[in-house]
Write the structure tokens for this entry.
Amino acid sequence: EAQVTQNPRYLITVTGKKLTVTCSQNMNHEYMSWYRQDPGLGLRQIYYSMNVEVTDKGDVPEGYKVSRKEKRNFPLILESPSPNQTSLYFCASSSPGGREQYFGPGTRLTVT
Amino acid sequence: SQELEQSPQSLIVQEGKNLTINCTSSKTLYGLYWYKQKYGEGLIFLMMLQKGGEEKSHEKITAKLDEKKQQSSLHITASQPSHAGIYLCGAGGSARQLTFGSGTQLTVLP
């Protein structure tokens, strides 16, 4: 089954404790992306990757890092999480000519 | 940068009623995507519109693109509880780099 998986689905952590949210897709898609969703603000893109070793900033990259060492994986790294990064995070992937992005189920992060 | 405004922000309808959700862009629309999200879950692709005047349907959901007005509308006929969720419009040159609206929360009362 074609899918995008994210782990963990839920995470509660404390300020400053480094964390990684993993994202994996099994569709051999070149393009992957991270979004955060906040009430009243909709989905905002954090980072995206056009292919392995190619990443670029989206609209709200501050406080986040990403890496793309393998085509299927695109982890999101929060080196020093802060409460304003409490949000619902989505990973997505698509092919170059794809008309849709496939979204993961989301990771709900709470930073206290 | 492009901004998308959705209206209404929330909508409560009785089962069987028709409803419309609008998405207005601050810039010319080159591609408009509609997604549905169940609360706390991922996004499900509904349809994509590219040309002015284009209209597409998916089951009881119809979307239209009015390029001149820089607007798209999503219409649900004879709503059902299964239609409940958050509807999001996204716009951009491709599915890879989308700007999203803030969403419309739809509740359908049985």
About this structure: The first strand of chain B starts at residue 4 and ends at 7.
